[in-house]
Amino acid sequence: MIDLRSDTVTQPSESMLDAMRRAETGDDVYGEDPTVNELENQAADLTGKSAALFVSSGTQSNLLALLSHCQRGDEYIAGQDAHTYCYEAGGAAVLGGIQPQPVAFNPRGELDLESIAAAIKPDDYHFAKTRLVCLENTQAGRVLSMDYLEKFSKFADANSLNTHLDGARAFNAVVKLGVDIKDIASHFDSMSICLSKGLAAPVGSILVGDSALIACARRYRKMVGGGMRQAGILAAAGIYALNHHVDRLAQDHHHASVLADALRQSPDFRLKSEPETNMVHLDIPAARFKALQAYLMERDVRVSSQRWVTHRDISLSDIEHVIECCEAFH
Ligand SMILES: *Cc1c(COP(=O)(O)O)cnc(C)c1O
């Protein structure tokens, strides 16, 4: 099956499984798992932050960041379609009493600084306290420019706002721009990175930030039931992913662009936008998409929406098969 639903569907490779099998473990709730400690040190070094925390998922990582930045009655600003706002079951509001203030993303996946400024509440007891602003990079496959990040962090500073990056796919941005992950991380107080998306580990995310924030997040992780014991077997997969699966994201980007180039040739397909990283967004009528989805499924291609995502388990010949199917579909 060629599964284009998401880059979360990858299977661990034999060499990743070997690394997991060999991992030294201990009880991480006691801070005694050497492999978890190694992953956390590596992630902190890599991003230029003082501390890191290995967590079960990107959702948990974002939740812990929000809980650590904000108190009850505080507010965070995030994109209208942001994962933190839309796709995390309202965790920050439910568990933290933190009010979301959504703001529309612009066509580049940015939050316009004027829109953020307009959403910041005055210091007045009628209002929640605007404490934090969150970005996403990549945002629906779009890469935030370094120029924008520069302006964004200056703006946040000038307005005394904390900043968090949902960098579930931050390494896709790193590879696309040819920058260092530190260059992106330096514009944020905290950043979450998924190991289980394009980096192709089976489980896990990393939250990075300063030591005080990470200590706070560690307490909240325990509170929400995320303290794991011999988690080194999972951390070993994460270390393997950071060491072996970053540069290869360029292949996923190439595959997305090959697919987009072919679909653009066909009068029956329309793209919503040009792929910048590993996502191709179609823009075809819903009924036609439904028929296409069924047609593809019969030919071992699985899609769940008009967003098609390339990843480590999709080869160039898989992409060629998808293209042939699309060309044959009428
Ligand atoms: C997948 C994703 C997350 C959450 O990751 P999970 O590990 O699935 O909880 C957060 N933000 C973005 C942008 C994502 O794509």
Please name the defining characteristics of this protein:
single chain; 330 residues; alpha/beta; seven-stranded mixed β-sheet; 14 helices; 11 strands; 15% strand
Give your account of this protein's structure:
With 330 residues, the protein is an alpha/beta fold. The protein is built from 14 helices and 11 strands. It has helices spanning 14-22, 34-47, 58-69, 83-86, 91-96, 113-119, 146-158, 170-177, 181-185, 211-223, 232-244, 249-265, 286-297, 316-328; strands spanning 2-3, 51-55, 74-79, 99-103, 129-136, 162-167, 190-194, 205-209, 279-281, 301-302, 307-309. It has a 7-stranded mixed beta sheet, with helices on both faces. A two-stranded parallel ribbon has the order 1-10. A two-stranded antiparallel sheet has the order 9-11. Helix 7 (146-158) links the parallel strand 5 (129-136) and strand 6 (162-167). Helix 1 (14-22) crosses helix 11 and helix 2 packs parallel to helix 11. The radius of gyration is 20 Å and the shape is globular. The mean pLDDT is 98. The protein binds pyridoxal-5'-phosphate. Pyridoxal-5'-phosphate (PLP) binds next to helix 3.
Low-confidence runs of at least 5 consecutive residues: none
Distance between the termini: 22 Å
Class inferred from helices and paired strands? alpha/beta
Helical segment count: 14
Main sheet attributes: strand count, strand direction, barrel closure: 7 strands, mixed
**Strand order in the sheet with the most strands:** 2-8-7-6-5-3-4
Mean pLDDT: 98
What proportion of the residues is helical, as a percent range? 40-55%
Radius of gyration: 20 Å
Number of strands: 11
Order of helices and strands: EHHEHEHHEHEHEHHEEHHHEHEEH
Q: Roughly what fraction of the amino acids lie in strands?
A: 15-25%
Instruction: Give the oligomeric state of the chains in this entry, treating copies of one chain as homo and distinct chains as hetero.
Output: single chain
